[in-house]
Amino acid sequence: MRWNTQSVAEPLSGPDDGTPAQPPLLSLAGALRTVRTPEFQGITFHEVAAKSALNKVPPASSMPFRWTVNPYRGCSHACVYCFARNTHTYLDLDAGLDFDRQLVVKVNVGEVLRSEVSRRSWAREHVALGTNTDPYQRAEGRYALMPGIIRALADSGTPFSILTKGTLLARDVPLLKSAATQVPIGAGISLAVLDPELQAALEPGTPSPAARLRLVSRLREAGLPCGVMAMPILPWLTDSEEHLDALMGSLAQAGATGVTAAALHLRPGTREWFMAWLARTHPRLVGRYRRLYAKGAYAPSEYRAWLGRRVAAAQARHGFGRGFERDEVFAHRDADVVAAGRPDAREPALVPGQDALF
Fold first, then answer.
1. Quick one: which H or E segment has residue 252?
2. Is the peptide bond before 184 cis (omega within 30 degrees of 0)?
């Protein structure tokens, strides 16, 4: 494997917060071994041999792409609002600390993907990366799975896009420039919070807002398109005119080619984890959030319409047109929530196991 210093995990006592230790090897299809390393304190990696790399998006989904690749499951970014948290329960892990600390690594994903996209039956449809968990989370610095994925897609003539919060993407800018000469590609950075203190509380494992802004500029300087997912916008925390104006201004200065913004949505698994965080850090807002999200995962249409107008005004002040969603190759948007003010947004289905095939 690609570890410089490594150990196969033995049963350990639980972390200081009293949560129980995980067994040394999970019952996962294709499981190879479980690894702990001093470089990633508190995190356990479960290495698996994937049987498939391409995941087909269910036909009922309104996502603007049909295929995804996710080299990792779980994410050390530990974003308290991450919509993908509940997918960890498909592995009999919890949507909270396990999602942040028990990470599944598909160590052979590049080789398997190359085989799949080399088949005569492969139609070279757009493939989206970063739709479930971040492909450039910290572990990518060790496992280095993305270069093999990028090469396999580009060499096969398959267009693709990447969404990430991870500044590790900078390592692969030369590779992406080369891939862009072979196929249409898109890059997108996720950034919705400028306040470093709030960002560190919400996304404790992510690079700073300033580092992500520099990454936007680096991608643009390399001649690559770079849209930004300014999601989620958090009611009463990041939805003020001042914050949205500062966010759009910073993104425009960095050279972003477009911005997609929408309000927080709270699916099962995410809802419980986020509300527990809110109770610890902003207890005065708990009642407001319970009322706002009383009827489901999405804020009411009235709030989304109000936010949509506020976002559009901030976009317009900083030169972002409303047509950017269809102009970019970057297509990592949830078509049901991309327009924050659209009143007829439906909740997309998360199909258990759609990314659970190893």
1. helix 241-254
2. no
- Report the distance separating Cα 11 and Cα 22, nearest Å: 7
Whether the predicted pLDDT of 23 surpasses 70: no
Tokens describing residue 343: 């009143």
Which residues, in sequence order, are bridge partners of residue 67? Answer: 56, 127
210-220 in b/e form (b: 16+ CB < 10 A) is: eebbebbebbb
* Residue 205, CA distances (Å) to 40, 136, 139, 165, 170 in order: 11, 12, 11, 10, 17
Query: What is the distance between the alpha carbons of residues 155 and 70, in angstroms, rounded to a whole number?
Result: 19
3 state SS of 303: helix
Please, where are the H alpha helices in 60-145?
97-101, 109-117, 140-143
Q: Is the pLDDT of residue 152 over 70?
A: yes
Pairing, β 127-129 against β 226-233? unpaired
Res 26: pLDDT = 67
pTM of the model: 0.84
The residue type of 91 is L
Q: What percent of the chain clears pLDDT 90, i.e. is strictly above it?
A: 77
Mean predicted lDDT score pLDDT of the chain: 85
Paired with 354 in beta bridges are: none
**Helix, strand, coil shares of the chain as percentages rounded to 5?**
35, 15, 50
